[in-house]
Amino acid sequence: MAAPLLPAPGTPMVEIRGLRTEFELPGRKFVVHDHLDFSVQRGEVVSLVGGSGTGKTVLLRQILGLERPAAGRIDVLGRPVAELGQRGAASRVGMLFQHGALFSAFTVLENIAFPLMELRTLPKALIYEAAMVKLQMVGLKPEDGAKMPSDLSGGMIKRVALARALIMDPPLLLLDEPTAGLDPESSDGFVTLLRALHRDLALTVIMVTHDLDTLFELSTRIAVLAERRIIMTGPPKQVIAFQHPFVHDFFLGPRGQRAMELLREYPFAV
Ligand SMILES: Nc1ncnc2c1ncn2[C@@H]1O[C@H](COP(=O)(O)OP(=O)(O)OP(=O)(O)O)[C@@H](O)[C@H]1O
User: Fold this and answer.
1) Which UniProt keyword terms apply here (predicted)?
2) Which residue among 112, 221, 225, 241 is least crowded, i.e. fewest CB within 10 A of its CB?
3) Does the beta carbon of 100 sit less than 6 angstroms from any atom of ligand 1?
4) Is the ipTM of this structure higher than 0.95?
5) In this predicted model, what pLDDT tens digit does every residue of 123-134 receive, in sequence order?
6) Share of residues in the chain with pLDDT > 70 (%)
């Protein structure tokens, strides 16, 4: 019997306890996470922030089941992540990689259809129909489906990658720097799209971002990764008030005034 897509009511979408992540370097171990606890409830949009190299992307990859922890437990949608298997994870967790990661030799529609094609369970015509629905869901036109990735703007690449991440209707979406590298107009458009999709598809979202506009526009909660664990999590206003050098620099350093303006601007940021 196929496992249900959603965990039982009240069970977190993601629950991480006592996570330790290490990488082998010549002659020593490099510890990225230690005693890290983190959980995400259904419907939340949680932004992970932290200094460069603190292990935000690695954490997303672990939630996707692409990396094994040295210790600790990661449950995704109510089950140990290892049990999802690679194919299972793809159908339950959508991931938007930082640089889109499109296949350059495939058309837009082939890129979007790829995860379903790999499953080899549905007829091709049905798969392309589903891909066409997702193409339009992310605001692209049917004729864009025949284009090659090299013909696309940065904003379009992100949209195609998002359509591909959503092809299997996952209830959980992971976003790694969704607006990095986009000009302000494309970035605003993409944030508006993400906000609408979160609402319309009842998605749960975990996002890594350095961009304060994206962060305040979308987040219902922020989690701060520092000292190898989540040192603070809460609504934006609470996190900004937390006394820690990283939090101070990130929100209240040179960018602080902008952060305060954004807090006044966005009703979400409570
Ligand atoms: N496969 C790997 N082997 C060895 N070290 C790795 C591997 N993957 C990640 N690392 C290291 O783990 C640390 C955390 O990497 P990660 O990419 O998660 O950081 P990040 O918080 O996302 O950083 P940034 O904000 O700069 O993107 C880095 O020092 C990185 O070099």
Assistant:
1) ATP-binding, Cell membrane, Membrane, Nucleotide-binding, Transport
2) 241
3) no
4) yes
5) 899 999 999 999
6) 89
In 213-263 the beta strands, taken as DSSP E runs, fall at 221-226, 229-234
Q: Is the C-beta atom of 33 inside 6 A of ligand 1?
A: no
Give the mean pLDDT of 222-235: 96
Name the residue at shortest CA distance from atom 30 of ligand 1.
53
| pLDDT(184) > 50 | yes
State the helix-helix crossing angle for 184-200 and 154-165, rounded to 10 degrees. Answer: 20
Q: In the chain, how long is the greatest CA-to-CA distance?
A: 56
Under 8 Å CB-to-CB from 10, ≥6 apart: which residues?
Answer: none
Choice from 28, 48, 57 to test ligand 1 binding pocket (greatest atom count within 8 A of CB): 57
Q: Which domains does the chain have, with CATH numbers?
A: 14-265 (3.40.50.300)
